[in-house]
What does this fold into?
Amino acid sequence: DQQVKQNSPSLSVQEGRISILNCDYTNSMFDYFLWYKKYPAEGPTFLISISSIKDKNEDGRFTVFLNKSAKHLSLHIVPSQPGDSAVYFCAASTGGGADGLTFGKGTHLIIQP
Amino acid sequence: KAGVTQTPRYLIKTRGQQVTLSCSPISGHRSVSWYQQTPGQGLQFLFEYFSETQRNKGNFPGRFSGRQFSNSRSEMNVSTLELGDSALYLCASSLLFGEGSPLHFGNGTRLTVT
It folds into this structure.
């Protein structure tokens, strides 16, 4: 049973436009959410996180939105750059982040020139 | 500051053997977690150690075990290897645990079981 779902295996976006990556979860006990980015042959790199007490968190070009009632979160990247091409993983945790992370299966973002 | 270091990068073992993987966390980080990544199951949590104590464990059989040393370095061991254990094993460290202390991952150990 997949508790964190990223339903789009891949997404293609033109350079300079907005990239929107989506993530749905089923476990209502999740209270801490993160996004990671992964290049081939490297480990995941932390991008941004959000606590369930917030609905938005921004860090530079990256913004994460959380809709608790819909059990949905999204990552917005504006503007998209060629270096953003990577696999993006959504992750969630219970216990305020103190428990192990549950990951989605990832979305491969491709930025077209 | 050096990142999370995992050794070896690649490993080939035969079914039935055992294997030990090593992880050195970022200096000052006291929490170390291990994850398994496979094409079918994605990234799955194995266990987490903090101050030499296992704090959390994922849904893996007892063949998977780990430990953490006083210098925060960690090892994980898989005994009686099965073909399905072929995966990328990722170690991650964090300063503490919980919100505000995200995981920093190493580049992983690629284990192939033949």
